[in-house]
Design brief:
338 residues, mainly alpha, Farnesyl Diphosphate Synthase, 16 helices, 73% helix, metal-binding
């Protein structure tokens, strides 16, 4: 089930995360070793739950951004390894907590930790990973980096609560939605990109440029994720197509279809989202309405807009392989809809 939405401009089709992967490979090997080490515990269930998600095949884009943004300015120390690991632990903890809140059964194509070990274990292991993340931030000894990542952690939690407050409410505006994804997703992208230049000792304008890059990349990334929930394939998503619909999440494709629809259409959305009538038949109808009102294509257009802002943020920075790779990541994130 799904709707394929081709982009008119084919420039994104060949975009790849591979240049970034190749540039950061030696450091990412060290990050992966530290991840396994810091996820360890004498309490057997902690590494079992943590490694279930850690080893499930995520691209680890966020820690790679930390490594690349530090290397872009010639950083030679060890702090970027611990900060990149902290970023990944913050992300992993968020996913463990998200799956409990959303009652999700699949994550990256595997059963979620909560379905195997239960909600309590998932929440508590997420808390353990948060604690380990902050220990590593302290180890690095940069108050500015600690401030950026700890602030991001608080903002992510605020985003989770905001999403709960607007869930299943059809009056949710596009601004409300953007506030949710700016906090839940984009804030960690922004922090991951900003802490690299912090420990490299760059000036404030450079930090702000990388923060803007990460924030807008994160917005584009999440917008495309929301399109894929209606227009992707389960094998690619690592979850079931239409999960957002079944969970009553108000994402931009729905907001646009609701806003542009007839009174009859809006009555359908209320029954489906607010009353939980999310059968497969209603999912098919939702897909039809979203397509009719250009919900997917216009959401992609929004993603391209934020991608352009991310490119502009990087543009003044020194040319080189790391900058080129980070530019290509923008096209890769948006090009996932093809």
């Amino acid at each position: 089930m799904g709707v394929v939405i081709p982009l008119e401009d084919g420039k994104n089709k060949q975009a790849s995360v591979k240049p970034l992967v190749d540039l950061t490979r030696p450091d990412m090997e060290r990050v992966n070793q530290l991840i396994l080490s810091r996820a360890g515990s004498d309490v057997q269930m902690i590494p079992e739950v943590a490694n279930h998600l850690i080893s499930s095949g995520g691209k680890r884009l966020r820690p790679m951004l930390t490594l690349a943004s530090a290397a872009m300015f010639g950083y030679q120390g060890e702090g970027h390894i611990k900060l990149a690991t902290s970023v990944e632990f913050l992300h992993t903890a968020t996913l463990l907590h998200d799956d409990v809140v959303d009652e999700s059964d699949l994550r990256r194509g595997k059963s979620t930790a909560r379905t195997i070990w239960g909600n309590q274990a998932s929440v508590l292991v997420g808390d353990f990973l948060l604690g380990q993340a902050f220990r590593m931030m302290v180890d690095v000894g940069s108050l500015d980096a600690l401030d950026v990542l700890s602030t991001a952690s608080a903002v992510i939690a605020e985003g989770e609560v905001l999403q709960l407050s607007v869930a299943k409410k059809m009056e949710t505006t596009e601004d409300d939605y953007l506030s949710v994804i700016r906090a839940k997703t984009a804030a960690l992208f922004a922090a991951a990109a900003e802490v690299g230049p912090i420990i490299a000792g760059t000036d404030r304008s450079t930090r702000n440029a990388l923060k803007s890059y990460g924030m807008n990349l994160g917005l584009a990334f999440q917008l495309v994720d929301d399109v894929l929930d209606y227009g992707g394939k389960a094998a690619d998503l690592g979850k079931n197509v239409g999960d957002d619909f079944r969970e009553g999440k108000i994402t931009l494709p729905i907001i646009l279809a609701w806003r542009r629809g007839t009174a009859e259409d809006r009555s359908f959305w209320r029954k489906a989202i607010e009353n939980g009538e999310t059968s497969d038949e209603n999912l098919e109808k939702a897909l039809g309405l979203i397509t009719r009102y250009s919900g997917l294509t216009d959401t992609i257009a929004r993603a391209e807009h934020y991608g352009a802002i991310a490119r502009d943020a990087l543009a003044p920075l020194p040319d080189g392989a790391h900058k080129d790779a980070m530019m290509e990541v923008i096209d890769f994130c948006i090009g996932r809809v093809n």
